[in-house]
Design brief:
213 residues, six-stranded mixed beta sheet, single chain, 12 strands, Purple Acid Phosphatase, chain A, domain 2, alpha/beta, 4 helices
Length: 213
Amino acid sequence: MLVLGDAHADDPENRRALLAAYRQADADVALQLGDLLHYDLPIPTWFIAGNNEDFDVVAALRNGLVTNSRVDNAHLLASTAVDLQGIRVAGLSGNFAPTKYDRPRANLVGERRRHFTHEDVQAAMDLTDVDVLLTHEAPHGLPVAEEYDVGCSHVDDLLNALDPELCLVGHHHEHAETTFGDTRVVSIAPAWERYYSLDPDTLALSWSDTPGS
Protein backbone atom coordinates (compact mmCIF):
# COMPACT_ATOMS: atom_id res chain seq x y z
CA MET A 1 0.00 0.00 0.00
CA LEU A 2 1.45 3.35 -1.08
CA VAL A 3 1.60 6.19 1.49
CA LEU A 4 2.20 9.77 0.38
CA GLY A 5 2.79 12.93 2.36
CA ASP A 6 1.86 16.48 1.46
CA ALA A 7 1.93 16.98 -2.30
CA HIS A 8 1.08 20.65 -3.04
CA ALA A 9 0.57 19.33 -6.54
CA ASP A 10 -0.99 22.52 -7.89
CA ASP A 11 2.68 23.32 -8.56
CA PRO A 12 3.68 21.59 -11.83
CA GLU A 13 7.03 20.37 -10.50
CA ASN A 14 5.42 18.91 -7.40
CA ARG A 15 2.74 17.28 -9.56
CA ARG A 16 5.41 15.59 -11.69
CA ALA A 17 7.07 14.30 -8.52
CA LEU A 18 3.75 13.02 -7.17
CA LEU A 19 2.95 11.12 -10.35
CA ALA A 20 6.51 9.77 -10.50
CA ALA A 21 6.06 8.36 -6.99
CA TYR A 22 2.86 6.61 -8.10
CA ARG A 23 4.62 5.12 -11.12
CA GLN A 24 7.66 3.96 -9.19
CA ALA A 25 5.65 2.44 -6.34
CA ASP A 26 3.35 0.51 -8.70
CA ALA A 27 0.82 -0.04 -5.91
CA ASP A 28 -2.86 -0.95 -6.09
CA VAL A 29 -4.12 1.61 -3.54
CA ALA A 30 -2.72 4.66 -1.78
CA LEU A 31 -3.16 6.77 1.34
CA GLN A 32 -2.35 10.50 1.27
CA LEU A 33 -1.91 12.89 4.20
CA GLY A 34 -3.40 16.14 2.89
CA ASP A 35 -2.42 19.27 0.93
CA LEU A 36 -2.99 17.17 -2.18
CA LEU A 37 -4.20 19.84 -4.64
CA HIS A 38 -4.41 17.41 -7.58
CA TYR A 39 -7.32 15.00 -7.64
CA ASP A 40 -6.94 13.12 -10.93
CA LEU A 41 -4.95 10.17 -9.66
CA PRO A 42 -3.62 6.96 -11.22
CA ILE A 43 -4.98 4.53 -8.59
CA PRO A 44 -7.65 4.63 -5.88
CA THR A 45 -6.34 7.00 -3.21
CA TRP A 46 -7.89 7.70 0.18
CA PHE A 47 -6.80 11.08 1.47
CA ILE A 48 -7.51 13.55 4.24
CA ALA A 49 -7.97 17.22 3.44
CA GLY A 50 -5.17 19.46 4.65
CA ASN A 51 -5.06 23.19 5.17
CA ASN A 52 -4.21 23.75 1.49
CA GLU A 53 -6.74 22.24 -0.90
CA ASP A 54 -9.30 23.11 -3.52
CA PHE A 55 -12.06 23.41 -0.93
CA ASP A 56 -14.81 23.31 -3.54
CA VAL A 57 -13.56 19.87 -4.59
CA VAL A 58 -13.24 18.78 -0.96
CA ALA A 59 -16.78 19.96 -0.20
CA ALA A 60 -18.09 18.06 -3.20
CA LEU A 61 -16.28 14.91 -2.06
CA ARG A 62 -17.70 15.33 1.44
CA ASN A 63 -21.20 15.41 -0.02
CA GLY A 64 -20.81 12.85 -2.80
CA LEU A 65 -21.49 15.45 -5.47
CA VAL A 66 -18.33 15.33 -7.57
CA THR A 67 -18.92 15.87 -11.27
CA ASN A 68 -15.56 17.46 -12.06
CA SER A 69 -13.76 15.54 -14.81
CA ARG A 70 -10.44 16.38 -13.12
CA VAL A 71 -11.38 14.28 -10.07
CA ASP A 72 -10.69 10.58 -10.44
CA ASN A 73 -9.65 7.94 -7.88
CA ALA A 74 -9.67 10.53 -5.06
CA HIS A 75 -11.65 9.42 -1.99
CA LEU A 76 -11.92 11.70 1.02
CA LEU A 77 -11.66 10.43 4.59
CA ALA A 78 -13.50 13.02 6.67
CA SER A 79 -14.27 11.45 10.05
CA THR A 80 -14.92 8.27 8.11
CA ALA A 81 -13.18 4.92 7.73
CA VAL A 82 -12.53 2.39 4.99
CA ASP A 83 -11.40 -1.24 4.95
CA LEU A 84 -8.39 -1.68 2.68
CA GLN A 85 -6.32 -4.84 2.23
CA GLY A 86 -7.42 -6.19 5.58
CA ILE A 87 -6.87 -3.04 7.68
CA ARG A 88 -9.29 -0.34 8.77
CA VAL A 89 -8.10 3.17 7.95
CA ALA A 90 -9.78 6.30 9.34
CA GLY A 91 -9.10 9.97 8.74
CA LEU A 92 -9.69 13.36 10.32
CA SER A 93 -9.63 16.04 7.64
CA GLY A 94 -8.51 19.61 8.25
CA ASN A 95 -6.47 21.56 10.75
CA PHE A 96 -7.30 23.19 14.07
CA ALA A 97 -8.37 26.80 14.57
CA PRO A 98 -9.53 27.67 18.11
CA THR A 99 -11.98 30.32 16.86
CA LYS A 100 -13.69 27.87 14.49
CA TYR A 101 -13.68 24.62 16.42
CA ASP A 102 -17.02 25.09 18.21
CA ARG A 103 -18.87 26.33 15.12
CA PRO A 104 -21.08 24.04 13.03
CA ARG A 105 -19.27 22.82 9.94
CA ALA A 106 -22.10 24.23 7.82
CA ASN A 107 -21.15 27.72 9.03
CA LEU A 108 -17.60 27.51 7.69
CA VAL A 109 -17.24 29.16 4.30
CA GLY A 110 -14.47 29.85 1.82
CA GLU A 111 -10.96 29.12 3.04
CA ARG A 112 -12.28 28.52 6.56
CA ARG A 113 -13.51 25.16 5.32
CA ARG A 114 -9.91 24.04 5.90
CA HIS A 115 -10.57 23.52 9.63
CA PHE A 116 -12.03 20.61 11.53
CA THR A 117 -14.79 21.24 14.05
CA HIS A 118 -16.07 19.60 17.23
CA GLU A 119 -18.64 17.79 15.05
CA ASP A 120 -15.84 16.28 12.96
CA VAL A 121 -13.87 15.13 15.99
CA GLN A 122 -16.93 13.62 17.63
CA ALA A 123 -17.87 11.75 14.46
CA ALA A 124 -14.33 10.37 14.25
CA MET A 125 -14.44 9.30 17.91
CA ASP A 126 -17.50 7.20 17.16
CA LEU A 127 -15.56 5.05 14.69
CA THR A 128 -14.57 1.55 15.75
CA ASP A 129 -11.82 -1.00 15.14
CA VAL A 130 -9.43 1.54 13.60
CA ASP A 131 -5.96 0.21 12.78
CA VAL A 132 -4.50 3.29 11.08
CA LEU A 133 -5.52 6.91 11.66
CA LEU A 134 -4.63 9.71 9.23
CA THR A 135 -4.43 13.28 10.56
CA HIS A 136 -3.08 16.55 9.28
CA GLU A 137 -2.58 17.91 12.78
CA ALA A 138 -0.16 16.12 15.09
CA PRO A 139 -0.69 14.88 18.62
CA HIS A 140 1.58 16.19 21.34
CA GLY A 141 5.09 14.76 21.49
CA LEU A 142 5.93 14.57 17.78
CA PRO A 143 9.55 15.80 17.40
CA VAL A 144 9.27 17.94 14.27
CA ALA A 145 11.13 21.20 13.77
CA GLU A 146 8.63 24.05 13.87
CA GLU A 147 8.70 27.57 15.32
CA TYR A 148 5.70 26.79 17.51
CA ASP A 149 4.70 24.10 19.97
CA VAL A 150 3.44 21.16 17.93
CA GLY A 151 0.50 19.17 19.23
CA CYS A 152 -3.29 19.38 19.20
CA SER A 153 -5.25 18.19 22.24
CA HIS A 154 -8.17 17.15 20.03
CA VAL A 155 -5.92 14.74 18.15
CA ASP A 156 -4.66 13.50 21.53
CA ASP A 157 -8.28 12.84 22.52
CA LEU A 158 -8.93 11.03 19.26
CA LEU A 159 -5.94 8.74 19.75
CA ASN A 160 -7.04 7.99 23.29
CA ALA A 161 -10.54 7.12 22.06
CA LEU A 162 -9.61 5.02 19.02
CA ASP A 163 -6.28 3.53 20.17
CA PRO A 164 -5.07 2.75 16.63
CA GLU A 165 -1.85 0.86 16.15
CA LEU A 166 -0.51 3.53 13.80
CA CYS A 167 -1.15 7.25 13.27
CA LEU A 168 0.20 8.89 10.12
CA VAL A 169 0.56 12.69 10.17
CA GLY A 170 0.98 15.20 7.36
CA HIS A 171 1.57 18.96 7.36
CA HIS A 172 5.12 19.19 8.73
CA HIS A 173 7.05 18.14 5.60
CA GLU A 174 9.42 16.09 7.73
CA HIS A 175 9.87 12.46 8.74
CA ALA A 176 9.68 12.02 12.50
CA GLU A 177 8.44 9.34 14.85
CA THR A 178 7.16 9.00 18.39
CA THR A 179 4.66 7.00 20.39
CA PHE A 180 1.45 8.20 21.99
CA GLY A 181 0.22 5.63 24.47
CA ASP A 182 0.27 2.39 22.51
CA THR A 183 0.12 4.15 19.13
CA ARG A 184 3.12 4.58 16.87
CA VAL A 185 2.99 8.08 15.38
CA VAL A 186 4.86 8.90 12.16
CA SER A 187 5.12 12.29 10.47
CA ILE A 188 5.35 11.64 6.74
CA ALA A 189 7.86 13.45 4.53
CA PRO A 190 6.48 15.32 1.51
CA ALA A 191 5.75 13.42 -1.67
CA TRP A 192 8.43 15.29 -3.64
CA GLU A 193 11.07 13.80 -1.29
CA ARG A 194 9.86 10.30 -0.38
CA TYR A 195 7.14 7.81 -0.93
CA TYR A 196 6.33 5.08 1.59
CA SER A 197 5.04 1.53 1.50
CA LEU A 198 2.79 0.23 4.28
CA ASP A 199 2.68 -3.52 4.88
CA PRO A 200 -0.97 -4.25 5.76
CA ASP A 201 -0.01 -7.42 7.63
CA THR A 202 2.49 -5.83 10.03
CA LEU A 203 1.82 -2.07 9.56
CA ALA A 204 5.56 -1.66 8.99
CA LEU A 205 6.59 1.36 6.92
CA SER A 206 9.43 1.50 4.45
CA TRP A 207 10.35 4.34 2.13
CA SER A 208 12.20 5.25 -1.04
CA ASP A 209 13.36 8.49 -2.56
CA THR A 210 10.91 9.96 -5.05
CA PRO A 211 12.40 9.79 -8.55
CA GLY A 212 14.12 13.03 -9.39
CA SER A 213 14.25 14.24 -5.78
